[in-house]
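Reading is simple: the token line describes the chain's fold. The lines below illustrate.

. . .
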Amino acid sequence: MSVTQQKDDKEFKRSPSHFTDRITADGSSPWPVEPGRYRLVVSRACPWASRAVIVRRLLGLEEVISMAITDPIQDERSWRFTLDPDDRDPVLGIRFLSEAYQKAEPGYDGGVSVPAIVDVPSGRLVTNDYHQITLDLSTEWTAQQRPGAPDLYPERLRDEIDAVNEDVFRDVNNGVYMTGFTRDQEAYEQRFRRLFDRLDALSERLEHRRYLVGDSITEADIRLFVTLVRFDAVYHGHFKCNRSKLTEMPVLWAYARDLFQTPGFGDTVDFDHIKRHYYYVHHEINPTRIVPLGPDLRGWTTPHGRESLGGRPFGDGTPPGPVPTTERVPDLA
């Protein structure tokens, strides 16, 4: 999750990723594609990190790029590995993700965000560029992907995917944060309307087509899904995005359930981590730190009916295999 900074005591803006090195297949960067060399550090609470978790799973890169899962509640020392024995990541040997940031840039005092890719041999952070990480998993790691891996960023559709992603990022992915963290009534109302105007437009786009771009799942669907799946559990109440619940927007609710029930999506979602992070860490919004029991999550597994729109979830590819035992999330209660 990237750092949100206050601006003029009223509006907030998201800081750009500070570490933007890329891992490339052609030797054009200091970091070559190499199986087993890198570790993806994520929080299951974080939508930006969840993008990378989904893409890694869909492409079958679990044995190629290992994954560390942080505690959903970080402290002033950054994301911590308290879910692991001795409170240390068993591969990197560190207690806090900030240690990898310091190895990359000694004295660094900026935000520590996930997703982050760390070079295992040196312990150095390679990148926290959440926009680029998933695109590179799709385009630079092709030789390491599983047989039948879908093309999530097809070249012929990239312009359209990029345009959709830009709108979704500005008004939805980041829009919920801009709405929730704003301290000014007028700015809040502006962001609120912009968010729901975009959700209405997306509903219209998806009413007669199963996916956002083309006839199969792409990067665009992944980026929208990670916000939709958190909407009723967090954003509707915690961030005051309460014109409508996701369950009250029929097209988007069916679309989100369709993706949730697709292998690689719902099987990466941990609602417990999501709720505990937002309601506990954002104490300026929720000073009591009480984590709500709701909403009822059983609706996520109900029929969605979107098969009638056609489309092929994985294009010419196939579904991913079972979730690795060590990466399974709890079933919905």
Q: What stands out?
A: Confidence is low (pLDDT under 50) at residues 2-8.
